[in-house]
Design goal:
Chain lengths: ~375, ~140
């Protein structure tokens, strides 16, 4: 297998854009990535597009708008990990030698409000069992019981990510919050307050993956690993709830992390920064535990010791995370890749992490799916 | 008034001795799952045998839903949680009849109830399952 590089990245801000359709968001991100990579028309041999709510042939619509169709275009859905799934497919094609240059894009315009998912059977919706934030709340409660995490710790994660997000012009929310702001915000599902949850929104991101190093500080994809859940490890239509209520089955994140660390020949101690799934504040703490950024069941202590903050040993979500940026499902994972590429190149401006050389990106969500990518320079 | 209909077929039964959930035990790997499926979600075998479980259990995790989730047709707020059934290796995700957080705690003994949740467009009451704090607790 040959090395795989990120030749170019492009990002459309995450937010709400009533006057721009999905294709327009994608066009901006793709143009940015191709320009950054110096790739001309005909310069890529395949494209993968991550989207969940985009509908039929979303990637085709974006590339058609730019007259760039003609190559294989595959639309990829893997829940919150859709963009990561698309990246792993592209990286495999380049690593194997099938193609030299592959375009990856992620686009999304999420409906407003509580996420509706065709994952659930209609009777589960009618019965009140399809309340996504309620599942997040149960997961948060389990984490609080297992890892000595307090509601203050949850609020502290949100405060940290919102503080980071102030420096990110691509984020939806760029306002610092106090612990009191977060704790006093409306309870959605105890223990989660509205300011501990990310907002579904809109955005696009694109990455050009290539066999050739690009620029003065080439960024390499050292690993991009996608895993789904093991039997019984997550809520399915018929499975019990081991993943929600007990811990004896490895989670998709743990499996993807293990695979990615092995593929990249690095461990958590080698990371300089990470972008992790923070759908809600508890999810970030659980992500830190599952990725080995802190000891198992050490999440509460990690937060109270300032873990993940800018200036700490290992900044987590320097971009502001999904809590600041919002979550356009198909684009969020590639948004992390764009951010980390800028960080590794030293182009992250006021949110630059010093001497960043090894970075990890993590997404996890419905399926269940998790993707862990490791980038190096 | 027509009699209530179940929210979906194959979820629960009301026996003379009380309500039960319709789980299934796999004939190949012996694990339990709910709702009963034609195929075992652990090993893929189609040799599962229906088995009734409940009504007693203990509350593992819980929260309260105050805003209407997509498609939900019952009253707000409502409790929501994970119940570990007594005597079998099975946890179920469920609505809770109790929506006052102060009256819920991990380990709380709970019991299965089948009760009308909403009235459908034809005017028929629709029954679903939930867990209620056990009488003694």
């Amino acid at each position: 297998m040959r090395p795989v590089y990120i030749a170019g990245v492009g990002l459309h801000p995450f937010g709400r854009f009533a006057d721009r359709n999905l294709t327009a968001l994608g066009v901006e991100a793709v143009r940015g990535a191709l320009r950054d990579a110096g790739v001309a028309r005909g310069g890529f041999q395949a494209a993968f597009c991550g989207t969940v709510y985009g509908g039929v042939a979303t990637g085709h619509k974006v590339l058609t708008a730019l007259g760039l169709s003609g190559v294989p275009i595959v639309n990829v859905e893997a829940g919150c990990a859709s963009g990561g799934a698309a990246l792993s497919l592209a990286a495999a094609q380049v690593a194997s030698g099938q193609h030299d240059t592959v375009l990856v894009l992620g686009v999304e315009k999420m409906p407003r409000g509580m996420i509706r998912s065709s994952f659930f059977e209609p009777w589960r919706e009618e019965a009140g069992l399809a309340a996504t934030p309620a599942y997040f709340a149960l997961r948060a409660q389990r984490l609080m019981l297992a890892s000595e995490v307090s509601v203050h710790d949850l609020a502290a994660v949100s405060v940290k990510n919102h503080r980071h997000g102030v420096a990110n012009p691509y984020a939806m929310y760029r306002k610092a919050l106090s612990l009191e702001d977060v704790l006093a915000s409306a309870v959605v599902c105890e223990p989660l307050r509205i300011l501990m949850l990310c907002a579904p929104n809109e955005g696009a991101a694109a990455v050009v993956v290539s066999s050739r190093p690009h620029g003065t500080t080439p960024v390499r994809i050292a690993a991009a690993v996608l895993c789904s859940h093991l039997a019984g490890s997550v809520l399915g239509e018929h499975t019990p709830l081991d993943g929600l209520a007990s811990e004896h089955v490895a989670t998709p994140t743990e499996m993807a992390a293990r695979g990615a660390y092995e593929m990249a020949s690095v461990g958590p101690e080698d990371l300089d920064l990470a972008e992790v799934q923070d759908t809600d504040a508890a999810r970030e703490i659980l992500s830190a535990e599952e990725l080995g950024l802190c000891p198992p069941r050490g999440g509460g202590r990690w937060v109270r010791d300032g873990g993940g903050a800018m200036g700490s040993r290992l900044p987590v979500n320097a971009s502001g995370g999904l809590l600041s940026k919002g979550e356009p499902l198909g684009a969020s994972a590639l948004g992390q890749i764009v951010e980390l590429t800028w960080q590794l190149r030293g182009q992250a401006g006021p949110r630059q992490v010093d001497r960043a050389r090894v970075a990890l990106a993590h997404t996890v969500g419905r399926g269940a799916n998790a993707c862990v990518a490791i980038l190096t320079r | 008034m027509p009699p209530p209909r179940p929210i979906a077929n194959g979820l629960f039964d009301t026996l003379p001795e009380g309500p039960r959930l319709r789980a299934a035990r796999c004939g190949a790997c012996a694990r339990l799952h709910f709702p009963a499926s034609a195929t075992c979600p652990y090993c893929g075998s189609d040799a599962s045998t229906p088995t009734l479980v409940g009504p007693e259990g203990r509350l593992r995790l819980f929260t309260v839903v105050a805003n209407r989730p997509p498609g939900y047709r019952g009253p707000l707020p409502y409790g929501f949680g994970v119940v570990e059934l007594d005597g079998v290796d099975l946890q179920v995700i469920t609505r809770l009849t109790q929506s006052d957080l102060a009256r819920l705690r991990p380990g709380l003994p709970v019991t299965l109830v089948i009760e009308p949740l909403f009235t459908d467009d034809e005017g028929t009451a629709v029954a679903s399952y939930a867990f209620a704090p056990a009488a003694a607790s």
